[in-house]
Design a protein that fits this description.
heterodimer, A: 639 residues, alpha/beta, Flavocytochrome C3, Chain A, domain 1, Methane Monooxygenase Hydroxylase, Chain G, domain 1, five-stranded parallel beta sheet, 18 helices, 37% helix, B: 256 residues, alpha+beta, Ubiquitin-like (UB roll), Fumarate Reductase Iron-sulfur Protein, Chain B, domain 2, 2 domains, five-stranded mixed beta sheet, 7 strands, 11% strand, elongated
Chain lengths: 639, 256
C-alpha cells in the first residue's frame, strides 16, 4: 500500500530551521566515536568530504572506491564552478536569493527546508576550500573572483579556471589522505559494492568485490553511507565517466531503499556532438561558455556556407530571440530543449547536422582574444583536441547530452533513507535539486552534504547505538553473499554472442529516444515493452570473456549494466506516471503555447518514492507531499 | 584506417608477460585512442580472445586514470595530451604502434596496460595537504592571494596524478609529481605553516616508495599532459635544502 512519507523537516521559520535542528541533535561522546565503524561508498566530493570530516571527528571510517585512487572520482571532471551566497560582488545576492533561485530552477519540486540549508552552507564551503588551498580564481587585489553562471542574475559562482571540480576534489582528497595517514580512515580502492546487507529494515553492512582479484568480502558497519553519484550512464552516451554506475544505489533499492523521482534527469545543453558510432562517451563544454558565447543556427536549413561567411541577417540567435531577458543564459533544460528543436527541425550544423553553433566572435571583438583565452583556454584546447577545430576561428558546435540525475535514493532531512542506518549523499540522493539542477550547484550540494550536514546528522543517529554489535557472521550477510555469487555466476556462464557494450548502446538509445529531452505516454509505453525484452536477451546472449577471479572489465560492465536495465525501466515508469511537465521532465502532452513545461501543482506537487517489490512485480509508488510555506510556486518564465 | 598494434599482455601481477601483435581494422580517424582500443577489443572478443585491460574513466583528460606508452612516449606523440584525448587523426593508416604499461619499479603491473600507482597516494599522505579540519576555516577573503601567486599555484595544482612523468623518466623519478603538490601548497599563504615540514616529508616518502633520482633529463615536463614545469622541481629542492639546513625533520602524522 502506498504511504505518505515524512521528511522530518524541522518546524519553525525557514532561516533558523537548520540551526534549531542542529542545536538539538544528539551528540556522541568524543571517546566513543572511535568505537563506531562507518562505511562510505564513493570518494567524490560527497564521499571524500564526508570520510575526511567524520574521521576528523574521531569516527572509524572505511571508504571504498572503484577507481585506483580516490582522487579520480568523477567529481573531478566538473568544469564550471560552485555557487555560494557570499555577495562579494555587492549585486544583491543573499542566502534567500540563492535558495529562491534553486527552488525555482528546480521547478518547485524540491523541499524548501533542504534547499535553504544548502544555500546557508554554501558560504562555509568556500571558506573551507580556500583554507585547504583550493586555487580559486582571484582578482588583481588578491580577493576571490566570481562570475555569473547558468542563468543566474547575480555573480555568485566561484571557479578555478575550467577545472573547479578537480581542484575541489583534490582539496577533499588531500584532507582524506591526511586522515588515511593518521590511521583514521581505511581506504579501499579498486573495489566495488555489489550488495547492501539489511537486517530487520536496518543497513548493517555491504558486500564488495575487489576488482583486481575478484574476491568478494563482507564489511559490517554501524552506518552505511552511499556517495556513489548519479545514473546518467543509463543512456550509455553521457558526460559521466565510463565507470560511473548505479549499482550501489540500485542494490540498496532492491533491499528496500525507496528510489525518488528517477525520471528527473538533466540533459546538459553544451556538449560536443557525437562524431560516429564508435563514440564511447560525450564531453561537456562548461556552461560558463554561454556567458560569452552566442548560440545560433543558419536561418535557412540548406545554408551550407562556413559559419564565418554567414552574415548576421542570415543567422537565427534563437535563444536571444525567444528569451530576450535571459538570452543565452536560460536554464539548462530550456536551452537543451530549444537546441534539440533546431536540430530536429533540420537546422543542425556540422558534418552530421547534429549541433548548433556556440560563437565567441562577438565577445572576442568586444573584450579581446586575451580575455577570452584567460577565461576558457583549457576548454578551447579540449574542444580542439576532440574535434580538430579551433574555436578561436570557427564557432564551436554543441548538442545536449545526459549529464546529471536529480533523482536518486529518497532521504529525509537528515540524509537518511527509509532504511535505518543507510545515509545517501551527493548526487546519489534526490534531495535538493527538484526537477532541474542549476549550474554550479552539484559541487555545492556534494560538499554541503559531506562537510557540513552528514557529520551532524549521523552523530544523532549513532548516539545511543554504541552497544549494537556489528559482525559479518550473521545470516543476512550469508544470504546476500549467496545471491551475489549466483548473479555473477549467471553472468559468466552466458554462452552468448553479444558484447556488453552492444547491449548498453541499445538500452541507451531506447532511454534517449523515449525518456530523454522530451517524453510522451506513447513513447514511454513503448520503452517499457522494449526494455524488459532487451534485458531478457542480455541475460541470455551476453558474452563475457576472461575469468571471475582476476581483473575482468567486461564482467564489471555487465554487472553494472544488469542494474541499469532495471533502473531504466523504473525511470520510464516514473516518467509515465508523472503526467505533467516540470523542469527537465518535459511531457509533450503538457506544454504551454510557447512550448514551455506546464506543471500541474494540484496533482503532482510531491516526490515520487518507489518501492521495489521483487523482480517481475510492479513497484509501488509512495508520496512525499511538497509544501511551499515561504515561496509561492510560480511558472518559470525566462522571457 | 588500419593499424598494427603490439601490446604488452600480462595476465596478473607478478606473472610473466609478452608483447602480442594485433591488427586493428577500419578505425575512424575522429575516434580517440581509447575508442580505437574499444574497437580492437570488440574485434578480439568476437574471436573469443580476452580484451586488453587498460585503466580509463573520465575520457576527458582530467581524472588521470588512463595512460600507457605509445612507441616509447608516455601518452603518445601529442604534447599536453592524455591518451583519452589523443585522436587517431594524428596517425596514418598502416602505422605500427607499440603499447606498453608505465615503466617504473614503483608502479607494478596489475594486468596488461594497468599499473598500481598507490605510491602517489602515499606521497600525498606524507604531507600533501593543508591541515584544516572541517569547520575551522576563517572567512575566505580574509587572506588575499596576489593573482600571480594564485595563478602560479594553479599551474602546479593542475597535476592529474597520471604517472606519465615517472614512466618517461630514464630514472623513474617522481620529482615532477611531488614538486607540483609541494609547490601548489607551498606557494599559497594558507600553506606556509607546514611548508618546510611538508617538503621534507613528501621528498623522503617519495624516495622510500622506490622511485629513482632526478638528474634533470626533463623528459617528465615534455610528456606531462598538463605541461607542468620542471621549475617546480627546483623550487621543491630549495624548500627541501633550506629545511634540512634548519634541521627541520619529518613531522609524523600522529597515529590513531
Amino acid at each position: 500500500m502506498p504511504v505518505i512519507l515524512n521528511a522530518q523537516i524541522p518546524p519553525g521559520p525557514l532561516p533558523t530551521k537548520w540551526q534549531e535542528h542542529r542545536d538539538h541533535l544528539k551528540l556522541v561522546n568524543p571517546n566513543n566515536k572511535r568505537k563506531f565503524t562507518i562505511l562510505i561508498l564513493g570518494s567524490g566530493l560527497a564521499g571524500a568530504s564526508a570520510a575526511a570530516s567524520l574521521a576528523e571527528l574521531g569516527y572509524g571510517v572505511k571508504c571504498f572506491c572503484f577507481q585506483d585512487s580516490p582522487r579520480r572520482a568523477h567529481s573531478i571532471a566538473a568544469q564550471g564552478g560552485i555557487n555560494a551566497a557570499k555577495n562579494y560582488k555587492n549585486d544583491g545576492d543573499s542566502v534567500f536569493r540563492l535558495f529562491y533561485d534553486t527552488v525555482k530552477g528546480g521547478d518547485f519540486r524540491s523541499r524548501e527546508g533542504n534547499v535553504h540549508r544548502l544555500a546557508e552552507l554554501s558560504v562555509n564551503i568556500i571558506d573551507q576550500c580556500v583554507a585547504q588551498g583550493v586555487p580559486f580564481a582571484r582578482e588583481y587585489g588578491g580577493l576571490l573572483d566570481n562570475r555569473s553562471f547558468g542563468g543566474a542574475q547575480v555573480s555568485r559562482t566561484f571557479y578555478a579556471r575550467g577545472q573547479t571540480g578537480q581542484q575541489l576534489l583534490l582539496g577533499a582528497y588531500q584532507a582524506l589522505e591526511k586522515e588515511i595517514a593518521a590511521g583514521h580512515v581505511e581506504m579501499i580502492p579498486r573495489t566495488e559494492m555489489l550488495d547492501l546487507v539489511v537486517e530487520d529494515g536496518r543497513a548493517v553492512g555491504i558486500l564488495v568485490r575487489d576488482l583486481t582479484t575478484g574476491e568478494i568480502t563482507a564489511h559490517a558497519g554501524h552506518a552505511v553511507v552511499l556517495a556513489t553519484g548519479g545514473y546518467s550512464n543509463v543512456y550509455y552516451l553521457s558526460t559521466n565517466a565510463k565507470g560511473s554506475n548505479a549499482t550501489a544505489i540500485w542494490r540498496a533499492h532492491r533491499r528496500g531503499a525507496f528510489f525518488a523521482n528517477p525520471c528527473f534527469t538533466q540533459i546538459h545543453p553544451t556538449c560536443i556532438p557525437a562524431s560516429g558510432d564508435y563514440q564511447s562517451k560525450l564531453t561537456l563544454m562548461s556552461e560558463s561558455l554561454r556567458n560569452d558565447g552566442r548560440i545560433w543556427v543558419p536561418k535557412d536549413p540548406k545554408d551550407s556556407r562556413p559559419a564565418a561567411q554567414i552574415p548576421i541577417d542570415d543567422r537565427d540567435y534563437f535563444l536571444e530571440r525567444r528569451y530576450p531577458s535571459f538570452g543565452n543564459l536560460v536554464p539548462r533544460d530550456v536551452a537543451a530543449r530549444n537546441i534539440k528543436t533546431m536540430v530536429d527541425g533540420g537546422r543542425g550544423v556540422g558534418p552530421q547536422k547534429n549541433g548548433v553553433y556556440l560563437d565567441f566572435a562577438d565577445a572576442m571583438s568586444r573584450l579581446g582574444k586575451k580575455v577570452i583565452a584567460d577565461r576558457y583556454d583549457n576548454l578551447f584546447e579540449m574542444y580542439e583536441k576532440i574535434t580538430g577545430e579551433d574555436p578561436n576561428t570557427t564557432p564551436m558546435r554543441i548538442y545536449p547530452a545526459p549529464h546529471y540525475t536529480m533523482g536518486g535514493l529518497w532521504v529525509d532531512y537528515n540524509l537518511m533513507s527509509n532504511l535505518t542506518g543507510l545515509f545517501v549523499i551527493g548526487e546519489a540522493n534526490f534531495s535538493d535539486h527538484g526537477a532541474n539542477r542549476l549550474g554550479a550547484s552539484a559541487l555545492m550540494q556534494g560538499l554541503a552534504d559531506g562537510y557540513f550536514v552528514l557529520p551532524y546528522t549521523i552523530g544523532n543517529y549513532l548516539a545511543g547505538r554504541l552497544n549494537e554489535k556489528i559482525a559479518t557472521d550473521r545470516p543476512a550477510f550469508k544470504a546476500a553473499a549467496g545471491e551475489t555469487d549466483e548473479r555473477l555466476r549467471r553472468l559468466m556462464q552466458g554462452s552468448g554472442k553479444r558484447s556488453v557494450d552492444s547491449f548498453h548502446r541499445e538500452l541507451g538509445k531506447i532511454c534517449w529516444d523515449y525518456c530523454g529531452i522530451a517524453r510522451n505516454a506513447e513513447g514511454l509505453q513503448k520503452a517499457l515493452s522494449l526494455i524488459p525484452a532487451l534485458r531478457e536477451e542480455f541475460w541470455r546472449d551476453v558474452r563475457i570473456l576472461g575469468g571471475e577471479n582476476q581483473v575482468n572489465q567486461e564482467l564489471e560492465k555487465a554487472a553494472r549494466l544488469a542494474d541499469f536495465f532495471e533502473l531504466a525501466e523504473l525511470m520510464c515508469r516514473d516518467a509515465l506516471d508523472r503526467d505533467e511537465s516540470c523542469g527537465g521532465h518535459l511531457r509533450e502532452e503538457h506544454q504551454t503555447e510557447d512550448g514551455e513545461a506546464l506543471r500541474n501543482d494540484e496533482a503532482f506537487s510531491f516526490v515520487s518514492a518507489w518501492e521495489w517489490k521483487g523482480a517481475g512485480k510492479p513497484p509501488v509508488r509512495h508520496e512525499e507531499p511538497l509544501r511551499f510555506e515561504f515561496v509561492e510556486p510560480s511558472r518559470r518564465s525566462y522571457k | 584506417m588500419d593499424l598494427t598494434i603490439h601490446v604488452w599482455r600480462q595476465p596478473a601481477p607478478g606473472a610473466s608477460g609478452k608483447m602480442v601483435q594485433y591488427e586493428a581494422k577500419g578505425i575512424n580517424e575522429h575516434s580517440s585512442f581509447l575508442e580505437m582500443l574499444d574497437v580492437l577489443n570488440s574485434q578480439l572478443a568476437e574471436r573469443g580472445e580476452e580484451p586488453i585491460a587498460f585503466d580509463h574513466d573520465c575520457r576527458e583528460g582530467i581524472c588521470g586514470a588512463c595512460g600507457f606508452m605509445i612507441n616509447g612516449v608516455a601518452h603518445g606523440p601529442m604534447p599536453g595530451t592524455t591518451v583519452c584525448q589523443l585522436h587517431m587523426r594524428h596517425f596514418k593508416s598502416g602505422d605500427t604502434l607499440i603499447l606498453e604499461p608505465w615503466r617504473s619499479r614503483a608502479f607494478p603491473v596489475i594486468k596488461d596496460l594497468m599499473v598500481n600507482r598507490g605510491a602517489f597516494d602515499r606521497i600525498v599522505q606524507a604531507g600533501g595537504y593543508i591541515s584544516v579540519s572541517t569547520g575551522a576555516a576563517p572567512e575566505a577573503n580574509l587572506t588575499p592571494v596576489p593573482k600571480p601567486i594564485a595563478d602560479r599555484a594553479f599551474d602546479a595544482a593542475a597535476c592529474i596524478g597520471c604517472g606519465a612523468c615517472v614512466a618517461q623518466c630514464p630514472n623513474g623519478a617522481a620529482q615532477l609529481f611531488t614538486s607540483a603538490k609541494v609547490s601548489h601548497l607551498g606557494l599559497l599563504p594558507q600553506g606556509q605553516a607546514e611548508r618546510t615540514a611538508r617538503a621534507v616529508a613528501m621528498v623522503e616518502t617519495m624516495e622510500e616508495q622506490g622511485f629513482g633520482s632526478c638528474t634533470n633529463y626533463a623528459e617528465c615536463e615534455a610528456v606531462c599532459p598538463k605541461e607542468i614545469s620542471i621549475d617546480f622541481i627546483a623550487r621543491m629542492n630549495r624548500d627541501y635544502v633550506k629545511a634540512k639546513l634548519k634541521g627541520v625533520g619529518r613531522v609524523r602524522v600522529e597515529s590513531a
